Amino acid sequence: MKKTYVKYLLLLVVIISLNACGEDFLETTPTDEIAVTDLQETAEISPEILESTLRGVYTMMYDLGTGGLGGHNDFGQKATDIHTDLLSADMALSKNTYSRFRLIAQLIPTVDFTYNTGNYMHWRYYYRMIRSCNLVISSVGGNDAPITNANRFTMGQAKAMRAYAYFYLSQIYIPEYSETSTILPIYIDSENPENQPQSTTKDVYDLMISDLTQAISLLNNFTRTQKYEMNKDVAKGLLAYVYASMGTSDANLKAKALAEEVIAAGYPLTTQAQALGGFNDVTTPSWIWGVDIDANTGKHLHSWWGQMDLFSYSYAYFGDTKSIDKGLYDLIDANDVRKGQFLNNPNSGWYLAPYNKFYHPARTPRGTGLYTNEDYIYMRADEMYLLSAEMSAKEGLTSDARNRLKQLLALRYSNAADYAYVDNLTGQSLEDEVYLQTRIELWGEGKSYFAMKRNKATVTRGSNHLFLTGQSFMYNADELTFDIPQSEIQNNININ
């Protein structure tokens, strides 16, 4: 009995460690005292312990301070989404009173590795996620463990989450895909905390593809109880993005096939009404992956909603407004319902803010300081339609690209004549249109940066950007890619 009690105490320490901010930069082990064997033995007594540990991994995606800074810019995945949207220039910091996200809007951290905001924060967050996934994987036998009914769903989720973390690292810390370039240290063993050298891009991609391919198989027949959990459709969507980021013809076709599989799973497109409905409800049928923000997870100002929503007691309302780039807004057709997502009042202090896209259901300006009715979106069906169309256009599958694009546009216009022009698009003009519609449809959802890189675009900052107005940057510019942070270089002798 005493031994069992001690094991439960050990579990508590492990779970807490998953959410604590430690001093060790990569945090390749959760504590100095808990070994993988402790978690393994404890899980044998009570298998649900591993589920609790896995929930701790998911919690990192929306918890405060997961990037090690603890400021109001540091709140997991959605903090990354704002950073990358600002880098893509589709999101403009149009008002800046409290200097939240000011540095990244000025493109300062991306050219100076000593800045923690951005460089350190994202590096720590994703490697902390990797460390935690490795702990879970080790606790069920390790990377090559025989798969049983008892561990397959846990292993599948942990491997998919590990790949998710490496994918974001591979996108924001390298300027473009190149197999032979050395980029990220690879960690796949929670019991080998020694600093690793940089691996090649090919090695990182091979790991992501392997993890996600295994996860898709392992998660077959997995029925999740919460939408924040990885299922095989989320894993397929992530693998589609991995392949799409490679840019080869073979990879493009694989990305298209995976996107089509997710579409076939039955998630409907976001309706016209939902496009103006606030994007605040995880039960929305088109949402493939997201999390319910309730009374236990509500994050006040220190959150994505605290940065974006005018209908909350937020930075967005009081002086750090994020708006759609004026140039992008001007490209939205007047009859497109998405034009109405943004406040078109030049005399307003919130010109082109997402007034009708992201908002609290009560719609009371600066109305609430507890965001319990505003959920986080990570992936939705519309992305897969657009990704399939993009890959089809790039591979000359013109009819497929047109059809998927028109299916989306049919829910953004009331009159088919408004999007009939798609039937005349071919080649580069079709690719450009899919890219444009991706930027419009997914504005503010953390996807514009990846689309910019896939399409090798040059972005120009519109007139409503406070900083670097009118300046243009290529997708692989130094200013648009984070640097390996100073702390990692100082602590890891294998990093050059």
From TrEMBL:
<protein>
    <recommendedName>
        <fullName>RagB/SusD family nutrient uptake outer membrane protein</fullName>
    </recommendedName>
</protein>
<keyword id="KW-0732">Signal</keyword>
<dbReference type="GO" id="GO:0009279">
    <property type="term" value="C:cell outer membrane"/>
</dbReference>
<comment type="similarity">
    <text>Belongs to the SusD family.</text>
</comment>
<keyword id="KW-0998">Cell outer membrane</keyword>
<dbReference type="Pfam" id="PF14322">
    <property type="entry name" value="SusD-like_3"/>
</dbReference>
<dbReference type="InterPro" id="IPR033985">
    <property type="entry name" value="SusD-like_N"/>
</dbReference>
<dbReference type="InterPro" id="IPR012944">
    <property type="entry name" value="SusD_RagB_dom"/>
</dbReference>
<feature type="signal peptide">
    <location>
        <begin position="1"/>
        <end position="22"/>
    </location>
</feature>
<dbReference type="Pfam" id="PF07980">
    <property type="entry name" value="SusD_RagB"/>
</dbReference>
<feature type="domain" description="SusD-like N-terminal">
    <location>
        <begin position="88"/>
        <end position="243"/>
    </location>
</feature>
<keyword id="KW-0472">Membrane</keyword>
<feature type="domain" description="RagB/SusD">
    <location>
        <begin position="345"/>
        <end position="464"/>
    </location>
</feature>
<dbReference type="InterPro" id="IPR011990">
    <property type="entry name" value="TPR-like_helical_dom_sf"/>
</dbReference>
